[in-house]
């Protein structure tokens, strides 16, 4: 861990008495197995071969890792399986990324949830398996620690289980965290029931920002465009950010009346797993650092674009050396659009002149793999 952070994006705003935790997260950690290089979706009754494969911690670990790699002090409350997958995920997050797992716990006799993700045509199909952690799972996030920010998931779902979805388990701690001065950033998952009940978003009254993707936003608001959905959601939360995947993101700040839209960077995507989580991590970083809205959207889009060029969700997240390398290359290449150079000029004030290089762990084919 001695060589981890190369830049503290909150250095200018830190003060004595600040919380030790920058961002608090709670959720389910999966073991992700990712296949890439598929020519098409798997076809019933056939065997498909993938040209690439990687394994890494997934689920809430995607965002926790992305935040930690950007230099934020990150605390994660999660249940970990009592198996080799759980050992690997715990070690990867705690020792590999420097994430505080103090509120987390290992559960004897419970196996880790697993997701297999198959990437093709810049899309992905996922198959997951798991069971709810046995009681007292509520103890994991009953008392959130003081923190500058927290990221919460809303909606009726249970992503660690194939059992009947449970009501939103985060509602109580979200209210408590907000009452204690924590800025709560919310996202939401896909509603398998198809109801898209606006009541699922009741927790937004405690949140500072909401960051759904375009399809989720339009379905919850019954609107026809992402921009219309963002405007409708801004009636429920101070800041609504709708991510548009390969088309960027749009935001509406209901307090200031500001709107902003930033296009995505065009890259060759290897695996889109976790790109939305990485976007949120970049946006939260910029928000806590006090950046303008447009810069926050641009930075989130940049982090997501860098992540989709690597395997997996968590271990694809970029650090500041990756951001610096991209910006140095963009400025040197004659073909970089002038608009992009203007959009990302704010990075000049952030990135050290010669950031030291340190190797980021990346997804490997199998757990326990030893590189030659």
Average the pLDDT over all residues and give the rounded result. 87
Q: What gross morphology would you assign?
A: globular
Structural class determined from secondary elements: alpha/beta
Radius of gyration: 20 Å
Largest sheet: 12 strands, mixed
Helix count from the secondary structure assignment: 9
Helix content percent band: 25-40%
Low-confidence sequence ranges: none
Order of helices and strands: EEHEHEEEEHEEHHEEEHHHH
Count of strand segments: 12
Give the termini separation.
22 Å
Strand content: 15-25%
Could you list some keywords that capture this structure?
twelve-stranded mixed beta sheet; 372 residues; globular; alpha/beta
Task: Walk me through what this model shows.
This protein is of the alpha/beta class and 372 residues long. It is 26% helix and 21% strand. The protein contains nine helices and twelve strands. Strands 1, 2, 3, 4, 5, 6, 7, 8, 9, 10, 11 and 12 form a twelve-stranded mixed β-sheet that branches. A hairpin with a 2-residue loop joins strand 5 (114-120) and strand 6 (123-129). Helix 6 (275-289) packs antiparallel against helix 7. The mean pLDDT is 87.
List the SSEs and their pairings.
Blueprint: E1 21-36, E2 52-59, H1 60-69, E3 74-81, H2 84-96, E4 105-107, E5 114-120, E6 123-129, E7 147-154, H3 171-179, E8 183-188, E9 209-210, H4 214-221, H5 226-233, E10 239-243, E11 249-253, E12 259-262, H6 275-289, H7 293-307, H8 320-332, H9 338-343
Parallel strand pairs: 1-3, 1-5, 1-7, 3-4, 7-8, 8-9, 9-10
Antiparallel strand pairs: 1-2, 5-6, 10-11, 11-12
Helix pairs in contact: 1-6, 4-5, 6-7
């Amino acid at each position: 861990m001695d060589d981890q952070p190369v830049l503290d994006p909150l250095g200018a705003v830190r003060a004595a008495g600040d919380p030790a935790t920058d961002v608090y997260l709670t959720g389910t950690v999966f073991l992700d197995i990712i296949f890439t290089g598929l020519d098409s979706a798997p076809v019933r009754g056939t065997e498909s071969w993938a040209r690439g494969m990687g394994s890494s911690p997934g689920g809430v670990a995607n965002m926790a890792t992305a935040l930690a790699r950007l230099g934020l002090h990150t605390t994660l409350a999660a249940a970990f399986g009592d198996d080799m997958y759980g050992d690997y995920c715990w070690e990867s997050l705690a020792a590999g990324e420097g994430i505080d797992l103090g509120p987390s716990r290992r559960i004897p006799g419970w196996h880790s949830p697993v997701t297999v993700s198959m990437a093709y045509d810049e899309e992905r199909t996922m198959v997951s398996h798991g069971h709810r952690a046995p009681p007292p799972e509520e103890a994991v996030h009953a008392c959130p620690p003081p923190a500058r920010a927290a990221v919460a998931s809303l909606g009726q779902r249970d992503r660690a289980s194939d059992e009947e979805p449970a009501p939103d388990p985060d509602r109580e701690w979200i209210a408590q965290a907000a009452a204690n001065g924590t800025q709560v950033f919310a996202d939401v998952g896909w509603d398998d029931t198809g109801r898209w009940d606006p009541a699922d978003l009741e927790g937004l009254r405690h949140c500072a920002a909401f960051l759904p993707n375009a399809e989720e936003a339009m379905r919850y608001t019954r609107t026809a465009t992402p921009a219309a959905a963002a405007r409708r959601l801004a009636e429920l939360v101070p800041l609504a950010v709708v991510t548009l995947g390969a088309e960027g993101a749009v935001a509406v700040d209901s307090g200031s009346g500001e709107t902003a839209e930033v296009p995505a960077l065009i890259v060759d995507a290897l695996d889109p797993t976790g790109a939305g989580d990485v976007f949120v991590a970049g946006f939260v970083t910029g928000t806590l650092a006090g950046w303008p809205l447009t810069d926050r959207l641009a930075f989130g889009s940049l982090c997501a674009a860098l992540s989709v060029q690597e395997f997996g969700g968590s271990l694809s997240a970029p650090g500041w050396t990756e951001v610096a390398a991209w910006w140095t290359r963009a400025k040197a290449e004659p073909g970089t659009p002038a608009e992009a150079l203007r959009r990302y000029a704010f990075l000049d004030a952030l990135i050290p002149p010669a950031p030291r290089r340190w190797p980021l762990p990346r997804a490997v084919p199998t757990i326990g793999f030893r590189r030659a």
